[in-house]
Amino acid sequence: MNFQSNSRPFFLLILVSFVLVLILSWHKYFINKDYLLYAQVTCDETEVGSCFFNEENDYRYKIIYYLAKAAPRCEPERGGCQELSCPAASPHCQTIFCTEETLKKLNLSDQCR
Question: Residues near 94 by Cβ (< 8 Å), separated by ≥ 6?
Fold first, then answer.
């Protein structure tokens, strides 16, 4: 039995699998835009909930996760991009405010304020 003749179908299977995974991933991320955007946006002290606070930069923020296909379009090169915000009834967006639990879960060294 020849080793080369037995390994050819195996390598073809591996190659086809690899190409299939590439095509499916490309479709998921570039066509369906099925991924979350992560943004740290300015947190107003008057907002309900606590803000994350980074002492090093003296910066208050909240975290927003937005489904990419539902996020507002923006071209940073042209300027004029609005800061991300979650509409009240949007199922595609989530605002994370600071709690001790979220600090631990996200492994952040910032404080809640």
Answer: 64, 65, 66, 86
